[in-house]
Design a protein that fits this description.
Blueprint: E1 2-6, H1 10-17, E2 29-33, H2 36-45, E3 50-54, H3 62-72, E4 77-82, H4 87-95, E5 100-103, H5 108-151, H6 159-168, E6 178-189, H7 195-213, E7 218-223, E8 229-235, H8 241-258, E9 261-267, E10 271-272, H9 276-289, E11 297-299, H10 315-324, H11 329-344, H12 351-371, H13 376-379, H14 383-391, H15 396-418, H16 420-434, H17 441-446, H18 452-463, H19 467-485, H20 490-496, H21 502-513, H22 517-524
Parallel strand pairs: 1-2, 1-3, 3-4, 4-5, 9-11
Antiparallel strand pairs: 6-8, 6-9, 6-10, 7-8
Helix pairs in contact: 7-8, 10-11, 10-12, 11-15, 12-15, 14-15, 16-18
Length: 525
């Protein structure tokens, strides 16, 4: 900290400078000035934290200097020095913001006490400033955390708990405030996005929602409780339902155009802040049950509780089409599209209906794959298949994407299996390429999504050998060539053809060729 002593009497300045140990109090530099003009020049050049100033000075008094300091350097703490106990001076000094008023000559202990008091005030003001700046910087995070804690019930759902939490976080909630929750769901992105890109787009969607909500009422917060979802808390609604729908539909249309996504927006009913978790749960249920509409605004109070009357397709006919194979694939896909299009127009359609359809379609597809010896859990374990299946009940459109993928992949692979020569050829190549691995018929069959027994029958029918016999023959053939044509050690040859135990390799080789590996190599040479 730096201090300046301002007095038109040089002797008085020296007296104050020598009165106490400034460094002990944490004062780094003590400057002196003999006039207000000199003091102002020092203020321009140095950071001055405290000013000790005589009141009565020629040309410009200490009171006039203090008024200037308060205007130009408001963080500087000032203490007045004077020879006269004049009440008028003291009153004016206090009005201008002087911390203390000391009479000359000043006892050292009194001066030290006044300086210590000034230092404590400066520290308090610096801490207050730091906290204030921190609060301004982090206030949006405090608001977001407040609403997140409301929804998660970390803040108990009572008016008293909500009021207390808002007060602690310096968040103003008008008395009797009713909040209308608005939930935004991203149904899909039209572009492939990284996680970072999604975060940027989420920020853009939130900003656009804040702007669009301006014509509806006041926005008290927007949070992103999970991936691809936003929730806005709107209060003091001034727009009617027609205008709310118009503004939010414009928001959806703009987001489709500029942010490359399909959205659904769900508008709740006005509710007290402490009752928001219940209101939000109702919005979540509305969102889960919305499988038919996209890029639309849905109001909670317009939804009817009714069971969807669904005319289910003839699954036996679909099963027959699947059994016929690729020749009936076009007809089957057309039937699926017709049913899902019809489903989209069913009033009261809920996600449960899509789950039921998902199970029925899986049942007949898995049945046909089982007949052909194809193991469905291997065929559909790739990431694309898993993601499409997981999202299939989100909407009719997602279900159509999954159903097409399921049928195309199942029938395509079944057709490949029926051309058994092609599969057997691939199995042979696989065995030859991977004979150094620990292979068996289960591992080989699983690599082609087939049941081991079915794969083995198919292989033996085409080659006259089981897969195990073919694997053994290939290993011995390669080992025989390496022994005859190279100097590679027997242990390394054994490992190259899939034997970690050299003794077991030698016995197997002798059984096949009538001599152990070393004897065979000598004979060949």
């Amino acid at each position: 900290m730096n201090l300046i002593i301002v007095d038109d009497e040089p002797l008085a300045v020296r007296s104050v400078m020598n009165a106490i140990d400034w460094s002990k109090l944490g004062i780094e530099h003590v400057y002196d000035a003999n006039s207000a003009k000199q003091a102002k020049e020092l203020f321009a050049e140095q950071q001055i934290d405290m000013m000790l100033c005589d009141i009565e000075m020629p040309k410009e008094s200490g009171l006039e200097l203090l008024a200037w300091v308060r205007e130009q350097h408001p963080s500087t703490v000032s203490i007045f020095l004077t020879c006269h106990a004049d009440f008028h001076f003291a009153k004016e000094a206090i009005r201008l913001g002087s911390l203390d008023y000391l009479l000359k000559p000043i006892p050292p202990e009194e001066l030290e006490a006044a300086i210590s008091k000034a230092i404590e005030q400066l520290k308090a003001e610096h801490e207050l400033k730091r906290r204030s700046e921190s609060w301004v910087k982090h206030h949006p995070l405090f608001i977001e955390r407040f609403w997140t804690d409301i929804f998660s019930r970390t803040i108990p759902s009572s008016p008293e708990a909500v009021e207390s939490a808002a007060r602690e976080r310096n968040i103003h909630l008008p008395e009797g405030l009713a909040i209308t929750p608005v939930r935004v769901q991203v149904r899909r992105w039209h572009k492939e996005l990284t996680q970072r890109d999604e975060k940027i787009m989420e920020y853009a969607l939130a900003n656009a929602l804040q702007e669009s909500s301006g014509g509806i009422g006041e926005t008290y917060g927007i949070i992103a409780p999970e991936r691809n979802y936003l929730v806005a808390m709107l209060g003091r609604i001034t727009a009617d339902k027609g205008k709310i729908k118009k503004l939010l539909q414009e928001y959806i249309d703009n987001c489709r155009r500029f942010f490359y996504c399909d959205l659904s927006v769900y508008v709740g009913e006005p509710t007290a802040v402490h009752e928001l978790p219940i209101a939000h749960s109702r919005l979540e249920r509305l969102m889960r049950d919305n499988v038919a509409s996209e890029n639309q605004v849905l109001f909670l109070d317009e939804q009817r509780e009714e069971d969807a009357a669904v005319a289910w397709p003839d699954m036996k006919l679909w099963l027959h089409m699947l059994q016929e194979g690729s020749g009936s694939k076009g007809r089957l896909l057309e039937e699926v599209n017709k049913f899902l299009k019809r489903l989209q127009g069913v009033p009261g359609l809920k996600t449960l209906t899509l789950h039921q359809f998902h199970q029925d379609l899986l049942q007949i597809v898995y049945s046909v794959l089982g007949e052909k010896g194809i193991q469905a859990h291997h065929l559909f374990r790739d990431q694309v298949s898993v993601e499409l299946s997981d999202r299939s009940a989100d909407s009719v459109k997602h279900m159509a994407e999954w159903a097409h993928h399921l049928i195309e992949k199942a029938l395509g692979y079944a057709e490949e299996i029926e051309a058994s020569e092609s599969i057997v050829g691939k199995v042979k190549a696989y065995i030859t390429k991977n004979m150094h691995e620990d292979l068996n018929r289960e591992i080989i069959a699983s690599s082609f999504f087939l049941h081991p027994d079915y794969m083995n029958r198919l292989f033996k029918k085409q080659t006259g050998l089981s897969m195990t016999e073919f694997l053994l023959n290939e290993r011995m053939r390669v080992a025989e060539e390496l022994l005859a044509k190279t100097d590679m050690p027997v242990t390394r040859i054994a490992m190259n053809v899939g034997y970690s135990n050299t003794s077991h390799f030698a016995k197997t080789f002798k059984k096949q060729y009538g001599a152990n590996p070393n004897e065979y190599r000598q004979m060949k040479r």
